[in-house]
């Protein structure tokens, strides 16, 4: 890749510079792609490349629009490279995880639960609390006047009680 100045500028037909210098330089694009190839999120990759995430996403949006019109530009080439880099990162991470899964059942279960959620994940736990006859829960006027931190403490205590397994009750008999 040829070295270019960090701030390229658009040149009009008459040879004069137009607009602000662009951040869409080959060096910045390559830094972003490097970060994506090793598995970083797009926001982190953009920042690593020295651009704001909004700028990065505007480049991708522009590329999608140009791609939709059938154009091939630096932006569409960059979008293709972003998609390939993300696919490479995912393939590498899956391969590493599969290697770990051979010796680590927890890693294997994590992969199964993520990849084949419908067969390997536990059913989500859901608890619904209702008032009398399925109606809304009535709050005592006294509770409604308590400071929020006191209510939070009561809620934490109730949650702790609910998390404990029920204790068997002894019956006199």
Q: How does this model look, in words?
A:
The protein has eight helices and two strands; from the N terminus they run ββαααααααα. By secondary structure, it is mainly α. It folds into two domains: about 110 residues, no CATH class; about 30 residues, no CATH class. The chain has a two-stranded antiparallel sheet. Strand 1 and strand 2 form a beta hairpin. Helix 4 crosses helix 5. It is elongated and about 80 Å long.
- Sequence of strands across the biggest β-sheet: 1-2
- Helix content class: 55-70%
How much β-strand is present in the residues? 5-15%
The total of beta strands comes to 2
**Secondary-structure-derived class:** mainly alpha
Please write the string of helix (H) and strand (E) elements. EEHHHHHHHH
Tally of discrete structural domains: 2
Q: Helical stretch count? A: 8
The low-confidence runs, each spanning 5 or more residues with pLDDT under 50, are: 1-7
Mean pLDDT: 82
Sheet bearing the most strands, described?
A: 2 strands, antiparallel
Radius of gyration: 28 Å
The span between the termini is 88 Å
Topology record:
Layout lengths: L7 E4 L5 E6 L3 H12 L4 H7 L4 H16 L5 H30 L1 H11 L1 H4 L20 H4 L3 H16 L10
Antiparallel strand pairs: 1-2
Helix pairs in contact: 1-2, 1-4, 3-4, 4-5
